Each structure stands twice: as C-alpha cells, then as structure tokens.
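Q: what sequence does this backbone want?
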C-alpha cells in the first residue's frame, strides 16, 4: 500500500501516486466506503481548490455516459478532494498511432458530436479537446477524460451568439478530424484540398464547413457527413511507421497471435520467454520436436500444426482458432442474429480476453450496425430502425451513440403518432368546431417543435389558418367583432405567415377602430397580470387578451411588452414549482403557455430542467424500489455491490433530504442492532461485534448501542 504524508487518506487505499507536489495530489485509489476504484484529485491550495470545486459542479450537471462519473467529493482539514471514476482504455491518439480503420474513427467522431449536442443543450461549450483526451472504452464506446475546456455560456446571449459559440466547438472538432485523417491540421484550404487522398475527397466539404464555422449543430454535421463507401471503410490511419493493419495482414494467415502494441513489462517478459523457447528448440533438435509433436497430436489430432505452434508459444491454441473461424462464418451468414455473432467472438475472448482480432471484429460489427441504424432513420424506415435498436440494446445498452439514435427514433415515432391522430381528428370532424381546431393546432405545433421542417404539419396548420381567416373576415363584415378577433387569433396561431391574414386584419382593424376594443383589451390584460391571471382561467387571462390584440396588430408595442412580462413571470413560477418538486405543475404550466401561443423556445430551459428533474426522480424511485426489495429478502449489507444499504446511500447522494431513505436506513440499523443482541445472547461474540458496528455505521448516536459495543469489545 502506498502512503502520502500530506493528504488525509482515511477511507481510501492509495494504489498508485500519479503526480504529487507540496500542495496537491493525483492518485489512483480504492474507495473503501463505495467499494470501487477511483481517481483522487486533491489540493490544499486555494486557487486549485476553487478549480476542483468548479470541476465538481460541471461533472454533477453534465450527466452523460461519455463523461467520467463524480463518485465522491469533500473537504478534509485544509484539503479539498474529488473522487472520479477510474477510466480504462486507449486514447484516440494511441489508437491512431497503432492503426485505426475509418469505420471506427468515424464512429468515435459521431459519438463526440452527440456528446457536444448534450453539452450544448445544457448551455456548455467545450474547447481545446485533443485526441489524447478521447478514450475508447471496451474497444468501441467513447469517454472524455479532460473537461478543463468546458465553460458555461451565459443564458442571456442571443440565439445567434450561442450558435456562434457552438460553431467554434465544431470548428475545433474539424481540426481534430484533419489531424486524425492527415497527421496534422492543414494551415489553409488549398493545402487541405491537395493533401486529402482521393478516397477521402467526399470529406472535403464537411471539413471546409467546419473550418469556416458553418456547422453549429449535430443535425448540420450529420447532413454534411458523407456515407462511407466500401473503399473508404477499408482505409486505415496511423502515426507509426508500421501500423496495426499491416501487422494483422502479415500474421492473419500464419496461425500466430497478433502482436501486442501496448508496451508492458508483462508482455516483454512473455516475448523473452518465447525467444528462449525458440533458442531451446534450436538447441534440442532431436528431443524437443518429438515431444512437441506428441503433445500437439494428443491436444488436437485434427490440427497438428496449429497445436505445435500453440505448444511452442508462437500461435493460438487450436480451440481458439476453431472458435474464431466459427465466429467468422457466423459473421458472413446474413441470417445470423447480432447476439449469435457477437456471442461467438465472446467465446474466443473467454480463452484469450486480449484477442485483438475478435475485439476488432466486435467493434466493427457494432459500428456497422449503428451505421445501418442511422441510415434507416435517414430513409424513414422505422420498422428496420426499431429492429436494430432492439437488437443493439441487448448488447450495448448504455452506448452514447445508440442512445442518441434511439432518441431520434422515439422522436420520429412520436411525430408519426401525433400526425396520425391529428389527421384523423381533422378529417373526421372538420375545423368548424373551435375546440377541434385548437387541439389540432397545439398537436401540430408540437410536431414542429420536434421536427421543425415537417411538411405535413406545416400544410395542416395552413389549412387551419385558411379556414379561420375566412371565418374572421365573414364575422368582421357582419359586425361580430369579438368573434372576428377570436377567429383571427386562431388563424394567426396556426400560421402567422398566411397571406390571407393581412386582409382579415384590415377588416378587423377597421371594425375595432369604431369600437375601441383594442384599448379595452390592453387595460383588461394589465389588470389580469396584476391579479396573477397569466394563462388561467381559460377564457379570462392576460396572455389571451394580449394575443387578441396581436392577432389584429402584430406589432402592437404594449401587447408585445405584456407578452414578454407574462412569459418571464411564468418561467419564474415554473422555477418555484420545480423547487417544490411539483413536476406535474411545471408540465401543466408549459402546456398551458404554449397552447396560448407563447414561444416554445422561451420555455426550452424550463423544459430541459423539468426533464432532468423527472429523470432524477425516476432514478430515486427505482433505487428505493430496489432497496425495499432487498430489505424484504434480507440483503441488508451483503453482498458488497447489491445490498439495501448501498441502494439507499445512492438515493441520498441524489437527494440528501430524502425522508424515505433516511427512515429505511434507520430501520436497517435497528434490525442490525437486534441481530447483534441476539448473537451476543447466543454466545457469538465476533458476530455480535460485527453487527453492532454495522448498525452504528448507520446510526452512531444511540447510547445503548455505544454501551454494548464497549462492553462486547472488552
């Protein structure tokens, strides 16, 4: 065990000091309380402590599978520390040095784009990420090891300003792609064009747009991303003189193991032993061949040569060769399921967990399946997409790219369901009934929020707008001003760009001038704001009155200012409801506001925080359910990674004030104390001490328990 004379290590077992100075520590450790490996960052310097606290805040807010998990944090005397998930895996920089195919390289960049989109949705920008910061975990999944470039973008910035910030992130990605594909970022466009090999020419447009900061979203990136041809997919990239691809090509037909590219003492020793084996073989030409041949034939009569190579330590075992050949044949069979193919390669890894050809094939298969899924979504083939998602979810359920594509699929499905039900409603009932028109408008606007360019939704909304524009003009001509304004409002909400709206507005305006309705509406709206009647009751609220004014005069300053004030107050009210845990109230508020025509974008931040709160509450309830089940089945403190105490502590980490978790932990402590007392009475002294210690770990303030412990330990 490694010790440090500065940072208090209680609760940790340090396993490796990575970096140590007079005021800071970076070390690998085992967290005794959580029972898991982690990376400790600690400092007693004020400036560094502030940096660590900022990093902790970022890790807490930016929940993503591709971001290392913050497992613990706190102060110890003058020191502040973070305990972060210990990440294993090669960096992208290492994999490019070793040799990486274009399929896997593009898969990594697509996952990084999805990660950027996640950061942007939370209001963060990411700068200065290098290939060394991107780790490839499990030969496929991306994880980022350095968030020092992550910074909060001020919410008050205009949308175009935020997009410029996002575009800078994508420009950084472009330079990273250039360096990965070409060995370095090109100084100008002409050099980039001339340096790109012919096979990579389809990437030129994407790289130039990234360089010019013309890409600011994942959609724009994927729209510009070229499809990989067979020739492109076979391309390999590396920084070393001899790459992994060449080595694999040479060794694939010789029945020898693929060379290890990671330098380690253990592997060096193994290679030395192999060389010694060969030397002994040459020195003992008479004795060893016969022994080797006898062992090989006994081991595998069907593959004597492979067995010989395996015996002398330069080839794979016949059983592993047979399993790999079986896996390859299943891969080439189009009728085989993903589970069957991957399972066959995993059978190889049971013999040799570091078998690189199997690891590489698994990574390529996942990349190919994800590419097919993305293509199916692009072609709107939802049946194929659903099949691929179900298939992949069984093998890589927490993959970031799969989660992003699954979200796209769910969005497509949701859009389809809304359009189908809305079309049936409109076709069956017509649009003369205002309630039908209102419901259809709200549903179709939800479709546009999910899919802003959906042509069917736009056409349907224009249909509603046409109907109510005509109704408004008819009512104006007949002197029914209130109805005319109401119809005009409905038409404007459905499609504010409808060319017939100007005619309808002119008729309504003329009638309103005579009656002074606009003035009275504005006066009433101000009163309703003072009363707090922003969006309710349905027929008498401030937003409704302002919208009626804007339906006639879209640029009315008083109405626009009133709408802005009402929006601000609604957002503040939503924040209060979130703080109270009233998630249903927040949802109803957002729906009510958008139903009355307030901008969807204004509530994006509130909608995002509602989604986060809902997911957090869902996780808390899930952990509580698990804890109750474990308590019922007697798994209070054992086994180490699946017991009720661990589940309840995870609830408290998510919600420190969770009352049910506290009560259940207290209940468990009482049960443990009862077990301890029974053990003592039965003469089981060691067991009694063990269980009273477990009980006091949860509740150390009970005097009778303190007395038992002191008495029993004597």
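A:
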């Amino acid at each position: 065990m490694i010790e440090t004379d500065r940072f208090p290590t209680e609760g940790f077992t340090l396993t490796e000091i990575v970096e140590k100075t007079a005021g800071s520590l970076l070390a690998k450790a085992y967290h005794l309380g959580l029972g898991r490996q982690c990376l400790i960052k600690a400092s007693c310097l004020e400036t560094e402590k502030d940096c660590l606290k900022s990093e902790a805040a970022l890790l807490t807010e930016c929940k993503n599978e591709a971001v290392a998990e913050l497992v613990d944090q706190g102060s110890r005397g003058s020191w502040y520390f973070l305990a972060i998930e210990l990440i294993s895996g090669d960096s992208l920089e290492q994999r490019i040095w070793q040799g990486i195919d274009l399929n896997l390289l593009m898969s990594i960049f697509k996952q990084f784009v999805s990660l950027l989109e996640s950061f942007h949705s939370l209001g963060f920008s990411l700068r200065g990420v290098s290939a060394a910061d991107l780790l490839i975990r499990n030969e496929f999944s991306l994880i980022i090891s350095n968030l020092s470039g992550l910074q909060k973008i001020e919410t008050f910035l205009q949308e175009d300003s935020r997009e410029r910030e996002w575009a800078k992130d994508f420009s950084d990605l472009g330079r990273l792609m250039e360096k990965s594909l070409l060995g370095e970022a090109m100084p100008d466009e002409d050099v980039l064009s001339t340096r790109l090999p012919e096979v990579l020419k389809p990437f030129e447009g994407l790289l130039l747009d990234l360089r010019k900061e013309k890409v600011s979203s994942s959609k724009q990136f994927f729209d510009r991303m070229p499809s990989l041809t067979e020739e492109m997919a076979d391309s390999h990239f590396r920084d070393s003189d001899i790459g992994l691809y060449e080595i694999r090509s040479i060794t694939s037909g010789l029945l020898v193991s693929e060379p290890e590219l990671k330098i380690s003492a253990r592997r060096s020793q193994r290679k030395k032993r192999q060389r010694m084996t060969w030397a002994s073989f040459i020195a003992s030409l008479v004795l060893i061949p016969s022994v080797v041949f006898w062992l090989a034939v006994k081991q595998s009569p069907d593959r004597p040569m492979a067995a010989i190579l395996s015996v002398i330590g330069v080839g794979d075992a016949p059983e592993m060769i047979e399993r790999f050949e079986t896996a390859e044949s299943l891969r080439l069979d189009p009728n085989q399921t993903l589970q069957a193919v991957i399972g066959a390669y995993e059978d190889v890894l049971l013999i040799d967990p570091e078998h690189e050809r199997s690891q590489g094939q698994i990574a390529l298969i996942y990349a190919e399946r994800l590419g097919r899924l993305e293509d199916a979504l692009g072609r709107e083939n939802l049946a194929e997409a659903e099949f691929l998602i179900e298939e992949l979810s069984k093998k890589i359920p927490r993959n970031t790219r799969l989660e992003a594509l699954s979200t796209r699929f769910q969005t497509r499905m949701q859009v389809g369901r809304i359009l189908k039900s809305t079309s049936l409603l409109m076709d069956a009932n017509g649009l003369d009934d205002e309630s039908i028109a209102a419901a259809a408008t709200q549903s179709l606007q939800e479709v546009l929020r999910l899919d802003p360019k959906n042509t069917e939704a736009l056409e349907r909304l224009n249909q509603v707008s046409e109907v109510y524009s005509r109704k408004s003009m008819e009512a104006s001509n007949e002197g029914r001003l209130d109805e005319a304004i109401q119809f005009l409002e409905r038409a404007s909400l459905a499609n504010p760009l409808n060319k017939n709206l100007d005619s309808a507005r002119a008729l309504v305006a003329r009638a309103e001038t005579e009656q002074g309705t606009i003035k009275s509406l504005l006066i009433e709206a101000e009163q309703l704001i003072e009363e707090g009647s922003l969006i309710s009751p349905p027929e008498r609220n401030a937003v409704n009155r302002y919208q009626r004014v804007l339906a006639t005069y879209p640029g009315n300053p008083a109405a626009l200012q009133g709408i802005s004030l009402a929006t601000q107050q609604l957002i503040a009210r939503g924040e209060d409801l979130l703080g109270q845990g009233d998630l249903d109230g927040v949802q109803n508020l957002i729906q009510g506001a958008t139903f009355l025509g307030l901008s969807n974008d204004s509530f994006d931040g509130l909608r995002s925080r509602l989604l986060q709160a809902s997911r957090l509450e869902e996780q808390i309830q899930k952990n509580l359910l698990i804890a109750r089940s474990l308590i019922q089945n007697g798994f209070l403190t054992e086994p180490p990674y699946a017991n009720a105490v661990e589940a309840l502590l995870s609830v408290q980490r998510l919600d420190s004030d969770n009352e049910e978790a506290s009560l259940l932990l207290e209940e468990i402590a009482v049960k443990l104390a009862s077990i301890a007392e029974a053990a003592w009475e039965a003469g089981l002294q060691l067991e009694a001490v063990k269980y009273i210690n477990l009980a006091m770990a949860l509740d150390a303030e009970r005097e009778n328990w303190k007395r038992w412990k002191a008495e029993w330990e004597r």
